[in-house]
Write a structure and sequence with these properties.
It contains one helix and eight strands; from the N terminus they run αββββββββ. With 160 residues, the protein is mostly beta strands. The protein has a single domain (2-139), classed as Lipocalin, CATH 2.40.128. An eight-stranded antiparallel barrel has the order 1-2-3-4-5-6-7-8. It has one helix at residues 2-20; strands at 46-54, 57-65, 70-78, 84-94, 97-102, 107-114, 118-124, 130-139. Helix content is 12%, strand content 43%.
Length: 160
Amino acid sequence: MLRHAAAAGKVLAALLLPGLLCLPRPLWAGQGTTGQQAVPPVPGEVTELWEGEVLTSRFRAAVCINARGELRGAALLRTRGGQVDVYHLEGTVRDGRVEARHPSSGHHFAGRLMDDGLAGGTLRLKNGLSFAIDARRTPDVPVTEDCAPVPEDGWRVRKE
């Protein structure tokens, strides 16, 4: 019975966690994630680090926002087992409202940037499930070439 419950939990996590960060599957280092080194910021972009928890996992998401309000970024998701996956994000920020999506998955995040250093909103999965997500925001952070957070100890991306 416990074995079946553990297997069901793993299946649920495998189905839900990738969608929670707006992508259908993780990208490993070398598959669109440039790696571990910080690069100078792109002129005209501001960067932020968003940190929080989703179900049993923690996330660190870097977002880069240009003067037109276009958002790009990547989130590192560390599962309870210690695996770190990378998920790329795209969207917009206008008048403090955030919209992020992944076109091929159908997942969509809508939320707000708050003055108290927080971001929060609702993630709607393609299948109709929705989750409230809150994150702490840190401005002006270093990012990698593809606007991913620079990994810290315990947040290293698995090499292929």
